[in-house]
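Deliverable D5.2: sample structural annotation.
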Amino acid sequence: MAKKPASDLQNPAFADDDKAREALEAIRWPEGPFCPHCGNADQNKIARGEGKAHRPGLYYCAACNGQFTVTIGTVMERSKIPLSKWLLAMHLMGASKKGMSALQLQRMLGVTYKTAWFLCHRIREAMKPAKRGPLGGRGKIVEADETFIGGKSTSRAYKPPRKKEAVFSLVERDGESHSFHVANVKAKTLREAIVKTVDRKSMLMTDEAPHYVNVGREFALHGTVNHSQNEYVGAGEWHTNTAESRFSLMKRAVFGTHHSVSEAHLQRYLVEWDFKWNTRKTTDGERAALIAKGVTGKRLTYRPTH
């Protein structure tokens, strides 16, 4: 009988800080360490600190006389959280299709709620793409649709209904998704997001909403379906069902996991949900490695997050 592969959660990097550091170095520095201070990548001018006088993972750069570790210049810089817990949190958030709450991460990592909450937001920062788009192209279809996320007004007899926030998504068929927290769903607001993200040679698919009429003329083809008349699939491949499926996953994450998402941080959650959709064909381990690669060049302190 063939031996079953070990679970990802049995990875020694999730329990040993030295193994975690080695794993992170292999991901960030596949061709050897480079100095984040001066950019030096000459391995002859970079030395590892040895002996008890040096903390583990410390490097020296002869080009600028600086010292650094693998966390310098990342969202993990100056963090007191052990690296093994960082990598485990990246894996857990990446592997949870509907997300993981800060309270759940608090229980699993054995940290305070404040630490878990901040950790989640810094990992979402690592999930953020370097740039958005372009989606689509010649012969490709991009769906555009909007929805509203927020608490329901039912069963809130003694509280005013929570404000619903507008979310706009652009989804390339069999491709990536980019979502935006928008102030409103007016034509001017949505057009700005569409033309900056979608290739004009694409075929744009929307519902019958009037705010798509003018921007639709700027693309190779504009197909619409009339949801108000219970039309969900029009001529050929005219539909927005892919975008609708994006919204269903988002709302399951809110209703089933987070329960409430603040207006101030909604865009960060959209980044996480887009990241998981865009990496849906990868394994959990590969997704965690992509998050670890994305930590570079991003700093997030508690004050702007809070």
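Annotation notes: DSSP finds ten helices and eight strands in the chain. The longest strand covers residues 141-149.
The annotation will be released with the project's public dataset once the embargo ends.
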